[in-house]
Amino acid sequence: MNGNTEFTLEDAVNDATFAPQPTEETMVPVKAEKLVMDYSTDFPSLPIAPLTTAGKESNAWVKPAIRSSTVTEVIKLTAEERAGPAATKGTAIADERKKCKEIARKSGCVIDLSESRDGTLSIMITGKQQKVAAAEQMLNRELTAQMVREITIPKEHFGAIIGKEGSNLRRLQEEYNCTIAMPNKEAEHGTIKITGARAGADALSKKLTEMSSERSKQGNEAFDIPHLYYPWIRGASGVNYDRWANEDNVKVKIPPYNVENEKIIVTGEKDAVTKVANEIKAIYQEKSSTIKSLSVKIARSQIRFVLGRGGEGLNEILRNTDCVVEVPSEDSDSDDVIIYGTQSKVVEALSAVYARASSVISAEIPCPQWMHRTLTGPKRVHLVALIPNMERLSVDFTENGTIYLEGPPATLTVAKELLLAEIERLSRDNDSKTVTVPIDLHRHIVGKAGANITKLREEFDVSINMPNENTNSTQIVVEGKKEGVKKCIEQIKEAVKKLENEKSRDIIVEQRFHKNIIGSKGESVNKLRQQYPSVVVIVPDASAKSDIISIRGDKDEVDKVHAFISKQNKELLESNYQESVPIFKEFHKHIIGKGGVTINKIRDETTTRIELPIEGSGEEKILVTGKKENVKKAVTLLTNIQNEQANIITVETVIPAKAKARFAFNGRRLLSDIEKECGNVFFSIPKEKSDKITIRGPKEFVATAERLLNELLSNLNDQTEETTITAEQTYHKFLIGKAGGKVKKLREQYPTVRILFPEDASDDIYLVGKKEEVQAVKAILLKQIEELKQTIELTADVDSKYHKHFLVRGNEVLKDIQAQNGNVQVYFPKMGDTSTTVTIKGSKECAESAKARILEIVDDLTCQVTLEVEIDNKYYRTILANRGQHTQEISKQHNVHIKFPVKDAKDEVNEEGKNIANIVTIIGRDYKCEAAKNALLALVPIVKEFSVDKINHSALIGRGGEGIRALQQTYNVNISIPNNSDNSDIITITGVASNVDQCILELQGRNVEFEKLAEERVLKAFKIVVNVPATYHQKLIGRKGAVVNEMRNKFDVQISFPKEGDVPDAVTISGYEEKVGECKAEIEAIIAKLQSMFTQTVSFDPRFHPRMIGTGAKTLKKTCEEFNVDIRMPNKTDQDPTLVTFTGEKESDVVECIEALIIQEEDFVDALVDNGQYISARPEIAAPQQLPRNVQITGAPWQNNLEQFPTMGQTPPAPSSTVSGVWGSRINKTSC
After folding, report:
1. What's the superkingdom here (predicted)?
2. Is the pLDDT at 1182 greater than 60, yes or no?
3. How far from 177 is each of 95, 144, 507, CA to CA, in Å?
């Protein structure tokens, strides 16, 4: 590396790539270009930053001092200043601490206090500043000895002390923390009493004395001067008034012009008042003897310019001429202006008045209202651009079509000319016209979210102003360019004509059919809109609960759409006829059948929809939907199943039409009442005109129901009365009585009366029966309701240790008692109170019932026991499923508390040797705990095994596991099926014992079905192979499998075509032997027909194939239909991908089709050749060869200092100096 260093850039690249790059061209040696670089100039060193001394730290980085929000104040009270007798100073500290504690609580501060030997009390207050101040006031009031000071002050000084509305008095009391007692107005003396701490009372006494002294120095003087002289007294712009207030500290009260009072009052220090009063009187005397008056007429419109803004014009004239100008009031019609002043100044003032009156002029320009917006523009930008110099110029656009100008004459003249020119231009180019549109059509002109009106504005470049809805105007204003306005109005008129030709019709369709009218993803409605473009069909939202569908559009099209939807609705009504079948709950399982076999069979046979009631709903009726005749058939089948399973009979009773209406009244409540009374019976009122009611149920129940119905019919005559009583729902329980005792007693007394309590949240109770008996029952019930409303107070003795039970979890138990007993008020003692008295307020029966319930709960708590149940914790998840629904039901049913171990409980053994994690605790009465234990153990899952032949496992599982999931959901169990590799027939069922047993019964039935299916499979295993040439396979399959699927469904067989590697012509048919034979015969017939057809194969240019097929094969289909042939395009795997096969019944059709396609092919290829002639190949330009460069660097550091930059392999020279430091001697020794 000595001397100059030379290298080439190509060398560097080759070194970096580590291997020669292959090239197709021969490299020609080129002489390298030499480049010399000086290190010192081509690679300059960076400038060295100058050293700077650290100056003072910048303020930007210094944190500002933040004052603490917490302050501390110390109050010291000597023994004499403390409240209370002097003898008890040492013992009063306890009371003072108590007061300090209370003040600290109220103020939110921290208060510490200490007492010294001499009785001085030191109090330290810490907290927020405002809170500390409040606490200090309270401490001074509570802990300081209150002194009374009396001072006598003249009564005329009381006003200064009290202030406006007592503001001064309140401020002084707060500032000195004392109370000021002012004497009554009737009192003759002027003694003021001050009560407070000594220091505060003394300071306040001194302050009030000073205020009285200050007040005694004040004086006032009043005198009468006419209104005319007030301007000279006040001075121009109130200069005299301000001077007296600032320099002499005197307040001068001058009456306004609009009052008759002429008394001027001067208030302040006595000397200053005298001085100012003399000055005012001197002004008056001087002006009253020298002033003259001059009256001139000024136009009313110009008087305000003389007046100026805020009267500044009059002040200016007064200041310059010492004359007063009097102008008429605003409500006066006079135009006389009077000038008052000395004779020499009046003429000068008159000139000033005329100058101000003529300084501003006004003008009016007529301009149509529609031009105003165009002239002004948004934020008056157009007006500013039109009249650049608008200083002191006012331009107002009035509603009566006038522009009002006001300003200096020169400016106003120019502005008026510019406005007139612009108005003329607008009148020439623009226009504004109105079009009459009926109000009910305005919303159609505007469109949804303004879409229509926006389109008109943009299309014709006009402004369309719709009238205000409140004006009921029919005029729509269109403004803009004349041509645009004309076309826009024509468009609006055309739209109005079209809208007037429209009509709207409504059709009532049950909401359950709306989705059928709309169709999947709106398909049906969109189809209607395409067929009838002018029609809009509006279907209400599901939340609207409306059956009305609105149709709007062209009259003829609306009628057609209405007829279509009416027809569709009629079909839907016919195919969706509904009827409910009363089936007793215990027979629902027979209706469903094993795995839903029975109900599915009925559905298939009758093509109806059968909906079972939700489990646990209490509803027993099954809903059947479909065509009327099919529904009737399904109802008969369902009824027959029930009749076969039980002794169910049907009885028909003839009733008069009037009674039928009574029975249908209020949701058939009368019949529902009889159904409840009798038990398992159902009443059915036919929808069609009939005089019969059907009763279904077990024989003994039907007989009772029929008897009750006949009794009711005998009583339902002209004397029957129906009435309603309103009572809060909380009272219904007490009106019904325990187990319905009170109602039964009333029924025995008044046998014809039916008392119908509401089933929903209503407060209405219905009474039906003979008039006199209904009135008697109504009176009894109203009396009971009044008694329930009367409030009494009861008490119950409840041990305080049980209070918590009623009040925990947000008073859950207590609220439940109140809800069940007419919302009585129950008061437990406060927490910490040892009282055992519980107070109950409410109506007599409600309060007594609530008391009995409270005492019953207390009795349960007194006799409460704890029972431990051992359950393996692996079953907890199952027991507590659905958020503990089952355990909550057990707790509620048996009135016990069930407690499970914590989730992460450790497996520890207790003293009895039981695992703590497996112990469930039940707390309650002994017999209730035992019952709850049995119910809880019944929830523990059991495991049973059942044998199902392995070959049937897949059938049991079903497609995608549907079958096994249905079983598990139906019986709420878990079924485990062994894997195929286990070769086991045993399946495991896990769940509650009763559910597992039911599931096993179902599986036993399934095994019988599986055996039948196995025999069926053997019969369907017959196979036969048919020889079908591969060329006909596609025809046999059909488009999208249509042909082969039709044969499969027709003969119930499986048809399999050969796969890759199979015999190409073998088609396999499997199924019943007879059906397989029939299918084979039909396939052979199809093949024979195909073989009789004429077939020809022709080669076509592959580039023409896409053109022949067309988008979505539309062109190919059209060709096939036109020539009645079948065209098969080649596959990618064919040996010759140019060959296209044509097949047809007639040879002539095939030949014509081929000739037509050959002509199209020739034209297509010729077009390709013609287009290709104009495309020339671009010559590739070789990239210029870069010359290699030799780079030479001089003056580099490694060239000048070999000691610091030694070359590879060079022996380093001896060091120039001895190595210093701790390690120096060791290095030297080593080198030696």
Report:
1. Eukaryota
2. no
3. 22, 11, 82
Interacting residues of 145 by C-beta distance below 8 A, sequence separation 6+: 80, 81, 82, 83, 84, 197, 198
Query: In this structure, what token pair is assigned to residue 736?
Result: 């019904």
Q: Find all residues with CB under 8 Å of 770, minimum gap 6, and list them.
A: 715, 719, 720, 721, 752, 753
165: number of Cβ within 10 Å = 8
Other CB atoms within 10 Å distance of the CB of residue 832: 6
* Residue type at 27 in one-letter notation: M
Q: Token pair 């389109």 is at which residue?
A: 455
CA distance 855 to 65: 68
d(CA 605, CA 610) in angstroms, rounded, equals 12
Spatial separation of the C-alpha atoms in residues 583 and 640, rounded to whole Å: 11
Pairwise CA distance, residues 395 & 412, whole Å: 9
CB 693 within 8 A of CB 655: yes
Beta-ladder partners of 132: none
Higher-confidence position of 697 and 249: 249
The three-state secondary structure class of 272 is: helix
pLDDT band at 717 (very low <50, low <70, confident <90, very high): low
* DSSP 3-state of 589: helix
What is the pLDDT averaged over residues 193-207?
Answer: 84
Q: What is the Cα 818 distance to its own chain's centre? A: 36
C-alpha to C-alpha distances, 364 to 361, 393, 400, 421, 652, nearest whole angstrom? 11, 13, 12, 15, 95
- CA 735 to each of CA 671, 741, 745, 775: distance values in angstroms, whole numbers, following the listed order: 21, 9, 11, 16
Given this model, what pLDDT does residue 988 score?
Answer: 92
Contact 509, 569 (CB under 8 A): yes
Here the tokens at position 69 are: 């929000």
- For residues 734 and 788, the answer to whether their CB atoms sit within 8 Å is yes
Torsions phi, psi for 398 (to 5 deg): -95, 165
Contacts of 972 (CB under 8 A, 6+ apart): 991, 992, 995
Tokens 């409910």 — which residue? 580
Condensed to tens digits (0 to 9), the pLDDT of residues 665-687 reads 554 566 777 776 776 677 766 65
What does the pLDDT look like over 298-342, one tens digit per residue? 888 788 888 888 888 888 888 889 899 988 888 888 888 888 998
Q: Which pTM was predicted?
A: 0.32
Residue ranges and CATH numbers for the domains of the chain are 147-216 (3.30.1370.10), 225-359 (3.30.1370.10), 362-428 (3.30.1370.10), 437-498 (3.30.1370.10), 658-716 (no CATH), 717-789 (3.30.1370.10), 792-862 (3.30.1370.10), 863-940 (3.30.1370.10), 943-1017 (3.30.1370.10), 1020-1092 (3.30.1370.10), 1095-1169 (3.30.1370.10)
Beta carbons of 734 and 846 less than 8 angstroms apart: yes
Which amino acid appears at position 1036 of this protein? L
Tell me the C-alpha to C-alpha distance, in Å, between residue 1204 and each of 5, 1200, 1215, 1227. 17, 9, 11, 18
- Lay out the sheet containing 974-976: strands in order across: 942-947, 986-991, 974-976
**3-class SS of residue 1017:** helix
Q: 589 to each of 969, 970, 1042, how far by Cα in Å? A: 15, 11, 41
Burial 945-971 (b: 16+ CB within 10 A, else e): ebebebebbebbbeeeeebbeebbebb
Question: How many whole angstroms separate alpha carbon 946 and alpha carbon 978?
Answer: 12
Q: Which two tokens stand for residue 990?
A: 């896990």
Cα–Cα distance between 631 and 578 in angstroms, integer? 7
- Write down the residue that tokens 């000084």 correspond to: 157
Residue 60 scores a pLDDT above 70: no
Name the pLDDT band for 1218 (thresholds 50, 70, 90). Answer: very low
